[in-house]
Each structure stands twice: as structure tokens, then as C-alpha cells.
Amino acid sequence: MYGILAILAAVVIYNCGDILPDSLKEWWENSTLRKWVHPVLAITLTIAVALGIKFDILNWGAIVIPVLFGFPYIFGMILGIWYNMKNAGQRVTSKNEKEAKEIAISCLTELGCQPEVYKDGSIGVSYQGENFHLEFGGRYVRIWDPMWAGIKGADPDMPKIKEAVNATNFNFGPTVVMTDPDEDGDIGLHSRRDIMLHPACPDNVIFLKAVLDSFFDTKEHVRRNFQQINSQQQQEKKPRRPVGFTQSCE
Questions:
Q1: How much is the pTM?
Q2: How far apart are the C-alpha atoms of 94 and 82, rounded to whole Å?
Q3: For residue 188, which phi and psi values (nearest 5 degrees)?
Q4: Does 218 lie in the same domain as 114?
Q5: DSSP classification of residue 179
Q6: Is-contact 139 199, C-beta < 8 A?
Q7: What are the phi and psi torsion angles at 174 (to 5°)?
Q8: 24: part of which helix (H) or strand (E)?
Q9: Are 115 and 226 in the same domain?
């Protein structure tokens, strides 16, 4: 009897929304308490029924109707929560994978470039006459300026070039990478830089342009460092001029 009355009361309360003020409805829709109402009511009803059976206030027949009405709702609610969590995780994953690429394509297009998307998801683009390659992982982008110079492994200037590259890599910006010699003994010089593109950043176009421009600065730093090292070594090889005068005594 009590179970039937409880169900009737819940149905009446649930369907009396039309007589409630709009302000109260709006507060309820935006309230954080809304998500806790059904679990709290379910737990309260379960405890009340258990205590009622224990103290012989209710019998097992009194909970048949609540179970018949409540089980499908609870089961559907559990399935809905599981489905929403699963889909939310997939949406977040796919969104993170797409966002950096979409932002990069949009920024490159605004810079007047024509990015080309490859089958593996990477992007090739020409900027200021230089060919760049972009690889993506979540919100992160790895930008390559591949093979912008080459040198023979047996070149006598190789030690000075390595020293110039090491000096350049101490600066903030792209990292210069030297490959192992190929079958012909050629060593390639590449530049690489890792960045993050986020949709909340309002200056992604300006930021990406500055990053691409930094690759040209890096090549210039390598050239200047090489010239400086070469000049220093040439100065060290010059014979030293004797200090003072030499006078022969007869």
C-alpha cells in the first residue's frame, strides 16, 4: 500500500511542472543538484523499503510495483551514462587529433600557402621558397625543414660545420639535425621544431609564421657560426710577428 502511494506521489510531482514558475524551472535546469536527485531518491527509497521490511511495516509485495517501474529506468540510466562516457572519450580523442591539423591548415592558408595533406596525415607546404613537412600528434606539431644543405663526410670542413651546428643548437628555436652518411658519403642537414597549437590561442597565425621564420634564422646562425669558427682558425694559423727589434752585434 505504501509503495503504491509513493509511486503515485512521485508521478504527481513529476507531472506538475506546468504549474511551476518559469524562474523555478530555469533554476532547476541550471542547478548542479539536478544530477543528484535521482540517485539520492533511489538510495533513500531502497533504505526505506529495507527498514520497512525489517520492522514489518512493509512486506515484499509492497515493493513489487516499485521494482517493476524502477528497474527499467535505472537500467536505462546506467546504459545511458556508459554510452555517453564512451562517446565522450571518442569525441575528445578524435577532436584532439584533428584540432592541431585543422588549425595548421587554416593558419597556413591565411599565410598564403597551399598545404598538401598526405595519406599518413602529415602535411607538406612551401613557405618563402622553402619546403616544410608537418607531423601531428594530438595538439602537438613537429615541423621539419628537410635537407636544406648537404656535405660530404670526407670534407675537411666537417669538424668546423659540426662545431657551428652545436653552437647553433644552444639557442632557442629549431634544432639542426645531421644525418648519417648515405651510400655516396653525403650528410644531410635538417631542422626540426616541436610546437603546440591550441584552438583557445587567438594568435595561432602570427605564432606559426614566427616559427616558420625561425627556421631561416637558424640556417643563418649556422652560416655565421661557421664563418666565425673558420676565421678564428685562420687567425691562429698565421705566423706571429716578433715583438721588439733584433740587432746583430759585430
A1: 0.56
A2: 19
A3: -95, 145
A4: yes
A5: P
A6: no
A7: -60, 150
A8: helix 22-30
A9: yes
Helix (H), strand (E) counts: the chain: 6, 6
Q: Which of 221, 206, 133 is nearest to 173 (CA)?
A: 221
pLDDT at residue 3 is higher than 70 = no
Dihedral of alpha carbons 43, 48, 50, 51, sign:
positive
Let me know whether 216 and 130 are in one domain.
Answer: yes
Number of domains in the chain: 2
Give me the phi and psi of 189, to 5 degrees please.
Answer: -110, 125
Angle between helices 204-237 and 64-110 (to 10 degrees): 50
97 pLDDT tier (thresholds 50, 70, 90)? very low
**For residue 18, what are the domain limits?**
2-96
Q: Identify whether residues 113 and 226 lie together within a single domain.
A: yes
Look-up of cell digits 542547478: 31
Query: Are the beta carbons of 143 and 134 closer than 8 angstroms?
Result: yes
Q: Which residue bears the cell 524551472?
A: 25
